[in-house]
Each structure stands twice: as C-alpha cells, then as structure tokens.
C-alpha cells in the first residue's frame, strides 16, 4: 500500500461517536477545507517516514480532541506542527483550524523527547481516530474492542508500509493491543496520570539520550486517552 492509498482508506472509514479527522469536519473550529488539509499533512508525514531508512514507529492509544483530531498528525498538537515539519525534513504541515492555537500536554511531552532523539519517527495510534462520548464531540473516551478490531487492517498496513526499525508502544493499552496483534514492541509508560517523568526516562533509555531537566509548567494536564 502507498501513503496515498493508506490515507484514502482512512478517509473512507466512518464509525458512530468517532471523529475521523481525515474525513469529518468540526463545525466549531475547522476551516472549510480542514479534512483535505489533514489528509495532506498525514500523507506528507507518512511519505517521509517510508522514505527514511531506520525510521521508528511510536504508537499510542487513540487521538485526543486537542491534538491529532485537529492536526491530522497523531500525538501532535498545533503548537508542535512546526517541530513535526522540521523533524521530517521540512515538510509543509499546515493548520486545519481557525481561532487560537490549541496545545495538548501529551503532545508537549512527546515532542520534548522527539526534539532530543532527533530521528525521523512515524507517530500513530492503535485506534487511529478520535472516540468521543455521544453528544459531546469535544470529549475523550477509550475506544472499544469492536472499534479496534474494525481498524486492525489499517495498523497492519501501516507497519508493513513503514517497515520500522523499532516500534515503541506508549502506554499499557497500546502495548497490550500490539501484543494481541503479534507485533513486537518496546513499551514505555504513557505520560498521562503523572507518568511524564517515567515516559521521558523510558524513551531516553531506549534511545540512549542523556537525561535533561524538562519543564511542562502551564500546559494542560496530559490526556489519558491519546
């Protein structure tokens, strides 16, 4: 599968109480062409990951409403779109929303590590979309087993396409899901629920990065759901 075909497959998916950022449009914050912009963001990001030898793949659980739902790039909020562009070879990632730029704590922690690792890294989630509560699209909820099973082929296609040198599962849910799929991975603590220090330490150990004092003061609490 090519990156373009993969993005097309994502666009075709539709599930109840799930926001698909590469298909759906948010009436509150999206530009008129937001789904198209997010598809292009992901296509460029994925193309670069496929081109690079030795790229790694970091996998979380699902999208959160403050991050990948808005940008189309998993584990990446609008504050860090420029960082994502630079890390992947100055690809042209753009905002798909209007109004103030929104930050996500989980994305801030993830990108604090990526800035130190400085290696092209594909970012993804076990469940690729944003699951939300009924009647509350700006909420986060865990995806269901049925939802995950429905999207397994997308994750398998992504791994086959990227051929990552290393897969890192971010959090217990992602680690267990990959184990169930028979995919080997290194597991680290998710930065939510006070786990940011363990997440940073775990990633630094995997990539042999010297520890540094990092500050995340003033940001939103990490989402437990992406």
From TrEMBL:
<protein>
    <submittedName>
        <fullName>Uracil-DNA glycosylase</fullName>
    </submittedName>
</protein>
<feature type="domain" description="Uracil-DNA glycosylase-like">
    <location>
        <begin position="120"/>
        <end position="193"/>
    </location>
</feature>
<dbReference type="InterPro" id="IPR036895">
    <property type="entry name" value="Uracil-DNA_glycosylase-like_sf"/>
</dbReference>
<dbReference type="Pfam" id="PF03167">
    <property type="entry name" value="UDG"/>
</dbReference>
<dbReference type="InterPro" id="IPR005122">
    <property type="entry name" value="Uracil-DNA_glycosylase-like"/>
</dbReference>
């Amino acid at each position: 599968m090519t990156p373009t075909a993969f993005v097309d497959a994502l666009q075709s998916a539709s599930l109840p109480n799930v926001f698909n950022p590469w298909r759906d449009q948010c009436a509150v914050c999206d530009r008129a062409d937001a789904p198209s912009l997010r598809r292009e963001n992901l296509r460029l990001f994925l193309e670069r990951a496929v081109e690079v030898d030795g790229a790694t793949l970091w996998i979380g659980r699902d999208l959160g409403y403050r991050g990948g739902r808005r940008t189309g790039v998993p584990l990446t909020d609008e504050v860090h779109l420029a960082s994502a562009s630079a890390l992947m070879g100055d690809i042209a990632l753009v905002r798909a929303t209007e109004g103030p730029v929104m930050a996500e704590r989980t994305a801030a922690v993830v990108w604090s590590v990526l800035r130190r690792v400085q290696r092209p890294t594909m970012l993804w989630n076990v469940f690729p979309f944003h699951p939300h509560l009924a009647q509350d699209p700006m909420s986060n909820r865990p995806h269901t087993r049925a939802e995950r099973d429905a999207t397994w082929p997308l994750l398998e296609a992504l791994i086959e396409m990227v051929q990552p040198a290393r897969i890192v599962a971010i959090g217990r849910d992602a680690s267990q899901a990959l184990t169930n799929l028979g995919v080997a991975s290194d597991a680290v603590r998710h930065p939510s629920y006070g786990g940011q220090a363990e997440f940073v330490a775990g990633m630094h150990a995997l990539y042999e990065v010297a520890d540094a004092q990092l500050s995340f003061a003033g940001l939103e609490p990490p989402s437990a759901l992406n």
